[in-house]
């Protein structure tokens, strides 16, 4: 059975897209079939991080019934499949977010895991994602504004009956001038399952337009994403 896992945050710019991409490849390395869905119709970045500037098949086209689910699914050389949203403003204007539920209905049994790069905030599209997801991973930075926005997202996820799998603390800096991991966990009420620190290899992988877990699997951040993947994979086997 497919597990739909949304990566959410509340605040933008915390690293949801990067986390979605790297977790997806790490799960793929564990032998799991993974599909990445860019559900951010407003400011999609998933395909851009893989160097796909003008995807030929997009979620927008699927939602308008112009292309099938197979035609909008792309296989990256890393082995991970993705469904991108169009970066075009004109395409965004022509897309009805109320139809977002339809893509989830078509993806059941297409993969072991569908990882959803969710929009930021607490608006309609986030609600649609959470309504159709089994569980969420909270991506947060070690500062108070990011943590408090994530707390609202957790409350929204619980209102949609999502399992909170855990918290990914991203872009930390060895505790200098930032909240400690224990403080973040205490405020959010959920465990931190990975602490991903600032890493030069992450900047390199973004420049090379490929997952860090694909290019530098033995890097510090690569090992943290592998830890998240093992955690997710293990707990998925315990669920009916």
Care to describe what's here?
The chain is α/β, with parallel strands linked by helices. Helix content is 40%, strand content 18%. The chain has ten helices and eight strands. An eight-stranded mixed β-sheet has the order 3-4-2-5-1-6-7-8, with helices on both faces. The chain is globular. The model has no long low-confidence stretch (mean pLDDT 94).
Roughly what is the average pLDDT, rounded to an integer?
94
Largest sheet: 8 strands, mixed
Q: How widely separated are the two ends?
A: 9 Å
Give the oligomeric state. Answer: single chain
| Total DSSP helices | 10
Strand content: 15-25%
| Tertiary shape | globular
Query: If strands are numbered along the chain, what order do they take across the biggest sheet?
Result: 3-4-2-5-1-6-7-8
Rg, nearest Å = 17 Å
- Unreliable sequence segments: none
List keywords for this structure.
240 residues, alpha/beta, 10 helices, 8 strands
Give the structure's gist in a few sentences.
By secondary structure, this protein is an alpha/beta fold.
How would the blueprint of this fold be written?
Elements: E1 3-8, H1 16-29, E2 34-38, H2 59-63, E3 74-75, E4 81-83, H3 89-93, H4 101-107, E5 113-117, H5 124-131, E6 135-140, H6 144-159, E7 163-172, H7 181-188, E8 192-197, H8 200-208, H9 212-215, H10 220-238
Parallel strand pairs: 1-5, 1-6, 2-4, 2-5, 6-7, 7-8
Antiparallel strand pairs: 3-4
Helix pairs in contact: 1-10
């Amino acid at each position: 059975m497919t597990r739909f896992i949304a990566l959410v945050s509340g605040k933008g710019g915390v690293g949801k897209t990067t986390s979605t991409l790297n977790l997806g490849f790490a799960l793929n390395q564990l032998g799991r079939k993974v599909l990445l869905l860019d559900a951010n119709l407003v400011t999609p970045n998933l395909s851009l991080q893989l160097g796909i500037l003008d995807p030929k098949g997009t979620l927008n086209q699927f939602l308008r019934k112009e292309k099938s689910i197979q035609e909008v699914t792309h296989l990256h050389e890393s082995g991970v499949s993705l469904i991108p949203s169009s970066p075009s403003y004109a395409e965004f204007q022509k897309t009805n977010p109320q139809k977002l539920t339809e893509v989830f209905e078509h993806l059941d049994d297409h993969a072991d895991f569908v990882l959803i790069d969710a929009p930021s905030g607490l608006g309609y599209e986030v609600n649609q994602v959470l309504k159709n997801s089994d569980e969420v991973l909270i991506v947060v930075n070690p500062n108070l504004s990011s943590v408090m926005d994530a707390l609202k997202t957790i409350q929204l996820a619980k209102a949609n009956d999502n399992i909170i799998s855990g918290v990914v603390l991203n872009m930390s800096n060895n505790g200098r001038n930032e909240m400690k991991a224990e403080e973040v966990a205490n405020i959010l009420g959920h465990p931190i399952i990975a602490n991903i620190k600032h890493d030069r290899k992450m900047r390199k992988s973004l420049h090379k337009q490929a997952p860090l877990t694909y290019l530098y699997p033995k890097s510090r951040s690569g090992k943290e994403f592998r830890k998240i993947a093992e955690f997710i994979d293990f707990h998925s086997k315990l669920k009916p």
